[in-house]
Amino acid sequence: MTSTSLVLKRPHSVIEVVESATSTHKKIRIQTTAKSSSVVGKLQQSIALLENVAQQNSKELLEVLVKIADELVLDDCQLPDLYKAIKKLLELFRQERDGDTTIRVKILRLLADLAEVRIAEVVNALIDEIIAVLKHEKSQKVIAQGLSSLHKIGARNLNQLPSTHVTKIAHFAQQQLISESHHTQKNALLVLSAFVALTDAKKGVIDTVGHYADSQDSGVRAQSLRSILCLGERGAILSPNLYQRAVDTLEDDYECVRKEALRLVFQLGVCHPDYMISCSNDDEEEMRLIDAAFSKVCGALCDLSIQIRVQAAKHLGDMTQVSSEFLHQTLDKKLMSNLRRKKTAHERGAHLVASGEWSSGKRWGDDAPQEQLDTATISLIASGACGALVHGLEDEFMEVRIATVDSMCKLALRHPDFAVTCLDFLVDMFNDEIEEVRLKAIYSLTAIAKHIVLREDQLEIMLSSLEDFSVEVREGLHLMLGACRVSTQACLLMVVQKLLDVLAKYPQDKFSAFGCMRKVGQKHANLCMAVTSHLLQDHPFFDSAERDVEDPAYLCILILLFNAAQNLPPIISLFPYVTLKHYAYLRDAMPSLVPELPIEGASTKKSIDDLTGSNNSREYLETVLAHINEIFSIAKDRVPLLKTAQDNLKRLGEIDPEMLGTANFLETFLAAQIQIEQLQSCTASQHNRAPLKESLAQLVRNCLKLQHVFSGLTYGDMLLVKQICLRASALHLVLIVRDRSQSALGPCQMLLQTASDISSFLDEKQEFQPDDLTTSLLNQLGSIVDPKPGRVFREILPLVQAASPVKMPPPNVEIKMCVANILEPCPQMSQDNVIKVTAGLIAALPFVAEIDNLQDAQKQDMRIKIKYPDQHTHTVVPKLSDFRKIMTEQGAHETNVKLRTTILLSHSVWTEASSVEITLCLAVRPGTELELCKPAKILFAPKPVRRGI
Question: What GO terms describe the biological role, i.e. biological process, of this protein (predicted)?
Fold first, then answer.
């Protein structure tokens, strides 16, 4: 049954309501009047144009075909029109069989575009017709385009194509391989690799495809190797016998061929690592295929093309099954043992006996002819493997060096002995002139830190990089030093002293330095115990002056020693009395950096992890939700009880960080429920004016918060959110119309858009059923002929007044909430740090914030809002390059990022310094911003211009 459409016109929009026979709800689609012409009409117009120019010259026909291809839209088109268009195009194709080939090529491209409708009958008909017309075609250019069109049609509809049509396409492509046209051969190989049955691949199709690797045309050679790889990706088993063919193709003159050959060598080595192949022409020695492939990939690091060098460097990191001797040879440019394997005495004697020649008798076989040595034939380790990674690290292009460092890290993680060998090379990369290379080397060394112990000479190079101007490099080094282990007391003192010296130069690094000292103390408890008195400047006979506990350098030392004492409690006996007092203060001030120690007078409160657990929090959350469902059954005075439950959910999110997203999502959902119920009572009275504007604005903000701040929602959660947003939009329109003090066009349009959104969602996810109010609102909106605000208001008013609450979503612990934490400027206003600037000029203020659970799509909506004391607000849009993923010892975090930028402050003259609030927010809608953190306050004092004498 075809769908029925009802088009309703408005001054600015068109609402099209489509009611399907297979669904119980209606789908609302909003379109602008400029696009009000139906798609079916466009296809019919295209057919009419083809009929009008059919008898004219080829130039006009080609122009019409190009115009149709550029403007073709196939949404919701009818089958008769599609069949008519296909029939007309094929008719033109046959008429132009002896004419211009360009027209026939364009027709084949247009036929491939018609397959985007993804209707099985149309796709099957297209395939049959294209193959039928190509069988009588003589132009190789047209045949090549027909193969390309078949590949395009089949690739887009592979899941719904019957096996007979897939086989028909593959058989036709195989027949065209005998063509003399290189372009036809290339497209035939492309189609054959995509559609040939994998059972046929075992019967010689791979050998047939591989035969074209010796073609005269470089494109055919490259496509032959690419087709073999495509068959392997589809599941066909690639024989190790293809290795020699791929190796021979590595010497090709064309880059495209060498690129595909390198991929094939890599793939064969990874798929058949333990297959033994001959390593010389005389077949005396054998080696593993992964080792031979590794050597060939290493040789590609000396290729003239930068793309191939980058590709080879990346492939090396994935060949983790290579033998240790080959792996270590990549860091040594000297050839091992002249590339010869030492033979045993028994083997040498057997060789002399086999020679069968006699001499004077003094020595057996002493006059036998000496062998002619050829390194190309007796090499066990190809010369390309010798120093290959060193060549990659010394490459002139940044991309090659980065890929090489990344591969060294992957190989070192699988081979701990190689991690120790490559340590010096990674440390040398700290002096690279490109910041990205330095960062990649730092993070790679952090990843393999568990396999290595740093020496003093290595530390000197690392610590010299701590004075780098880039803050990312300095923070990366802090992370690396916290992950590594040092060997001696001198090394530990060197690390601590350098960190303190650099901290004096860059005070903004104190938080990163604190985290580094915490990790260093945890990993070097014994070494810290030996230098405790030295670091605290504790004299054995005289009392030293008490140091300032707010001094960042002193805090670093205390954090180091306190964390070491956690693993080695005897260190506490070495602390002077004043240090114990400082511990009691720091334990309360910085509980995340200072661990709990058995010291008298300190706070004995347990951490949140000890007080809460995932099971306890989940049980409490389910109890709260059960109470909320019971409260909804109460007819009167349930709002105070719901607000109490809302406070409990908010408190749960503050106590247990793992439940932050789930608890805040449910709390926001409940807050929207309460606001809807409170505002719903205002719709009953005809003379009651709308409530305060802030109440409606807060309801809209909560709905937007549910849609944009939380991630990890299930489809059921999304449906509940869309339903409550639909109720809020309907209530918003009703109250605005009753108020009569502002225009209702905006709320009406928002209601229609929300209804269209939920209708599309229900159409895609037909397994979910909406509640009764949502179904009634969608049906009512679909039946309105002229959706003006007044008419919509009268139709939905009874539904809004009688609406029952939406059920609460089930507890979903996978929900994450996007939250931010401003590190700089400090969120607490400092009375001593006042930013002074001449009025009218600009003051640059560094801004650093950490944002958790930020999705990539939300980065474009991120804003920095600056609010001055006179309520003037300025918004800053950070660049996408200002967002950097937060690095950990396990690698980059997926959704946690750090925003580092500079904001500009400016204002007219103030009489005294006043606070300026800076916060992070998401601009999800013009005029609506969702704050992600509490504002940071700074003192700003624009001063008048001083007049000279």
Answer: snRNA processing
Question: Which residues pair with residue 277 across a beta bridge?
Answer: 287
Q: Which two tokens stand for residue 583?
A: 């511990």
DSSP 593: T
pTM listed for this prediction: 0.79
Residues near 596 by Cβ (< 8 Å), separated by ≥ 6? 566, 587, 602, 604, 606, 607
Structure tokens at 29: 């689609």
Q: Do 367 and 356 contact (CB within 8 A), yes or no? A: no
Q: At residue 235, what are phi and psi to the nearest 5 degrees? A: 120, -5
| HSE toward the beta carbon, residue 839, CA cutoff 13 A | 11
Task: Classify 857 as helix, strand or coil.
Answer: helix
Q: Residue 753, Cβ neighbours under 10 Å: how many?
A: 14
- Taking only the tens place, the pLDDT of each residue in 260-282 is 999 999 999 999 999 988 865 55
pLDDT at 494: 94
CA–CA distance, 237 with 228 (Å, rounded to integer) = 10
Interval 780-811: pLDDT, tens: 888 877 788 888 888 888 888 888 888 888 88
The token pair at 680 is: 């719903």
What is d(CA 348, CA 41) in angstroms, rounded to the nearest whole number?
A: 88
**DSSP 3-state assignment of 22?**
coil
CATH number at 40-195 = 1.25.10.10
What pLDDT score does 92 carry?
A: 81
Residue reference for tokens 């660049």: 879
Domain spans, the chain: 40-195, 304-339+382-451, 453-596, 614-802, 818-943
- Given a contact cutoff of 8 angstroms between Cβ atoms, the answer to whether 559 and 521 are in contact is yes
At residue 555, the pLDDT reads 94
As given in the structure block, the two tokens for residue 464 are: 């010299």
Of 421, 415, 333, 342, nearest to 378 (Cα)? 342
pLDDT (tens digit per residue) in 589-601:
888 899 988 887 6
* Beta-bridge partners for 916: 938
Give residue 32's pLDDT.
33
Q: For 928, what's the count of Cα atoms within 13 Å in the CB-facing half-sphere?
A: 14
d(CA 8, CA 747): 19
Helix residue ranges per DSSP H, 712-867 = 715-739, 745-764, 772-782, 789-801
**Joined tokens for residue 871:** 């309520």
Q: Packing angle between helix 140-156 and helix 120-134, nearest 10 degrees?
A: 160
Q: Of 603, 604, 677, 692, whose CA–CA distance to 634 is shortest?
A: 677
CA distances from 692 to 402, 698, 783 (A): 59, 10, 32
| Residue 520 CB burial class (10 angstroms; 0-12, 13-18, ≥19) | buried
Low-confidence ranges of the chain (pLDDT < 70): 1-57, 71-78, 202, 279-284, 333-384, 601-614, 635, 683-692, 827-832, 948-949
Residue 29 DSSP SS3: strand
Question: Hey, what CATH topology would domain 818-943 get?
Answer: Immunoglobulin-like (2.60.40)
Q: How far apart are CA 446 and CA 423, in angstroms?
A: 11
Q: What one-character-per-residue DSSP string does 633-682 give?
A: T-SSS-HHHHHHHHHHHHHHHHH-GGGHHHHHHHHHHHHHHHHHHHHHGG
Dump the DSSP string for 355-418. Answer: H----SSSSTTTTSPPP---HHHH-SS-GGGTTHHHHHHT-SSHHHHHHHHHHHHHHHHH-HHH
Q: What is the pLDDT of residue 16?
A: 43
Nearest to 795 by CA among 805, 806, 780: 780
Q: Is the distance from CB of 920 to CB of 933 less than 8 angstroms?
A: yes
Residue with tokens 């940044």: 398
Angle between helices 471-483 and 456-464 (to 10 degrees): 160
Number of C-beta neighbours around residue 606 at 10 A: 9
